[in-house]
Write a structure and sequence with these properties.
single chain; alpha/beta; ten-stranded mixed β-sheet; 6 helices; 27% helix; globular
Length: 239
């Protein structure tokens, strides 16, 4: 398995683990193809030279979109000011420009290949993702030694098919887990989730992409604040 990576910003090249520029992009070769990490480092402590980071939150996209998803971008914008380096991960199929995600096994291969780069800064890594990315994080958390799992819009079942439950993946993560779920997510509303040793934050009126209807009593910005506040409170509670 190849894990060599390079980090690039306009006019610079850095080695993994020394990323300081917001938006610095690192490419990583995996057995599933070339993946990409966009780093949003924790902001440095005022008046000190060392990084203010205490952990890395690595989050990947789902099967139908990329790291431009509103929740991923909101986390990258908010959490670095609170000691969390956010790594937005693009799976190889997405980097290659393909429109359809491969089988779960291949997604896991790509995530495993990325892991050494994510642990490069020498900090605890919270494995996360949205939808299909959340499933990958849950399936691989224990074997990779993830500090915790963040599951955004976990696809508990296909729309209209509650009998096709994926709860076992969530319940089997084996590490502290936070689910952030839209109140109207057709892949699983919060009340459909089984009891387990995870925490759950509901985004009222949100769909699978956390979009809220215009008629809802909360607007889109308020919904994103529910996400970022919930995640920040949770990561702050982690040992």
């Amino acid at each position: 398995m190849e894990t060599a990576g390079t980090t690039e910003t306009p006019g610079t090249t850095e080695t993994p683990g020394t990323v300081e520029t917001p938006g610095a992009v690192e490419t990583v070769e995996t057995d599933a193809g070339t993946a990409r990490i966009t780093w949003h480092p924790a902001k440095k402590k005022t008046g000190k030279s060392e990084s203010g980071a205490r952990l890395v939150l690595a989050v990947s996209h789902g099967a139908g979109g990329g790291i431009e998803a509103r929740d991923l971008q909101a986390l990258a914008a908010v959490l670095p000011a609170h000691g969390v380096t956010v790594a937005l991960v693009e799976q190889p199929w997405r980097v290659a420009g393909k429109k359809l995600a491969p089988a779960p096994r291949t997604l896991d291969v790509g995530w495993r290949g990325l892991w050494p780069a994510l642990t490069g800064p020498g900090l605890p890594v919270v494995a996360g993702g949205r939808s299909a990315g959340a499933r990958v994080a849950c399936r691989t958390a224990t074997e990779l030694g993830a500090h915790a799992v963040l599951a955004l819009s976990f696809p508990l079942h296909p729309p209209g098919r509650p009998e096709k439950s994926r709860a076992a993946e969530l319940l089997g993560a084996g590490v502290p887990t936070l689910v952030v779920q839209g109140g109207n997510d057709p892949f699983g509303r919060p009340e459909e989730f089984p009891q387990g040793s995870y925490e759950l934050v509901e985004v009222p009126y949100g769909d699978h992409g956390f979009a809220v209807p215009k008629r809802a009593p909360v607007d889109q910005d308020e919904s994103l604040t529910v996400i970022t506040d919930g995640v920040l409170k949770w990561v702050s509670s982690l040992p």
